[in-house]
Each structure stands twice: as structure tokens, then as C-alpha cells.
Design goal:
The chain is mostly helical. The chain has 9 helices and no strands.
């Protein structure tokens, strides 16, 4: 009996350790993502890379996908307990929310895939940013982030694992902080045009009533 208790305790400690490692990996991914996208780092790299810096966005995207793949691979191969027992109703709700989020994400990625991926730098010497006010941006200022939130939290409802909850919490906190910083950059770049847009259009989810 003592051996069984030791084994159960050891397995529990391993599971706890795995979840701490998972949290660390997600936080590390977010920190690297922010650092490599920061103005100061990009200025230093622009000086070092010179003419090749026009491909930085593409390299950054490839690095982001590679590191994201490592984190997700670790997560799906670890043991994690359920935080609640899913039901048929929770499956239906979770799938509906997640699918809606994926559709929104697909629409956004299709709309500005070249800019997001960095492929635009291969065709345009000095890619210019433009303030998007049409399409889905008429309803929310950050539809890609809104779709991402719907997809990841819908997935948690379908598969309520502690590992997914940890990942979702870190991703959500990081994204909300990122949105705040991004909006400051947009205000600095587009001035009054973005401030007016910000007053008229909700941040993440459409208003139930028009103003």
C-alpha cells in the first residue's frame, strides 16, 4: 500500500510540474513574441540586417509559428485533469462558439494575410500600413483577437482540461495587454482618425445597441 501511495503522489507531483512548465512555456512564448515585435529590437535589427530587414516580418512569423508549435506539442502530449465533466449541452455550446471564432479568424487572416505573414515585403519595397475601417472592422476594432478568444474559450468548453485553462488565461491576459499597447501605437500613427474610430466602434464584441 505504501508503494501505491508513493506512486500516486509521484504522479501528482509530475502532473503539477508539467503544468508549471506549460505555464512557463506560454509566458516565454508571449515574452519572445513581444520582444521581437518591439520597436527598439526592430530598430537594432534594422541596423544590423540593413536591406535584408524588409524580410524581418516573414522571418518573425516563421519563428512565431515554430515556437508556437513546440508549446502546443508539449501541451497535447501531457496529462491534464478535467476541470468539469462536459455534457451534451456544453459540447454544443463550445463547438458553436469555437467554430464562430474560427470563421472570424479566417475572415481576418484572409483580409490581411500578406501583411500579417510578412509576405507583402517580398512584393512591395516599403509596405505601408493603412487604417482598416471596412468589412468586419465596422463592428469591432480587433476582430482577429475577438475570434481568437471565442475559438480558445469555446475549445475549453468542449475539452475542459486544466492545461487548456492555463493556456487560455495566459493568452487572454497577454492579448488584452497587447491590445492596449497596440491602440496607443495606432493613435500615434493615425491620430484623430483612429480616436474617432475608437469612439464609434467597440473593442472586441459588437454593441447590442447602436449609439
Amino acid at each position: 500500500f505504501g508503494y501505491k501511495r508513493f506512486s500516486a503522489n509521484a504522479l501528482f507531483l509530475i502532473m503539477v510540474q508539467q503544468h508549471f512548465i506549460l505555464a512557463f512555456l506560454w509566458i516565454l512564448f508571449c515574452v519572445l513574441h513581444s520582444l521581437l515585435a518591439s520597436v527598439s529590437i526592430k530598430q537594432k535589427l534594422a541596423t544590423a540586417m540593413r536591406s535584408r530587414f524588409k524580410h524581418y516580418r516573414l522571418l518573425y512569423t516563421l519563428f512565431a509559428f515554430a515556437t508556437l508549435g513546440v508549446v502546443i506539442y508539449y501541451q497535447i502530449n501531457m496529462d491534464s485533469p478535467l476541470i468539469f465533466n462536459p455534457s451534451t449541452l456544453s459540447y454544443i455550446i463550445g463547438i458553436a462558439v469555437a467554430l464562430a471564432g474560427l470563421v472570424i479568424m479566417a475572415v481576418c487572416i484572409k483580409k490581411y494575410f500578406l501583411s500579417l505573414s510578412g509576405l507583402k515585403s517580398l512584393f512591395q519595397e516599403s509596405p505601408t500600413n493603412s487604417l482598416m475601417l471596412n468589412g468586419i472592422h465596422r463592428f469591432v476594432r480587433h476582430p482577429l483577437y475577438a475570434g481568437t478568444f471565442m475559438a480558445i474559450w469555446g475549445a475549453l468548453i468542449v475539452l475542459p482540461l486544466l492545461s487548456i485553462l492555463i493556456a487560455n488565461f495566459i493568452i487572454t491576459m497577454y492579448t488584452l495587454i497587447g491590445i492596449t499597447l497596440e491602440e496607443k501605437k495606432l493613435e500615434a500613427e493615425f491620430g484623430d482618425a483612429y480616436k474617432i474610430y475608437k469612439q464609434k466602434v467597440p473593442k472586441l464584441f459588437p454593441a447590442l445597441r447602436s449609439k
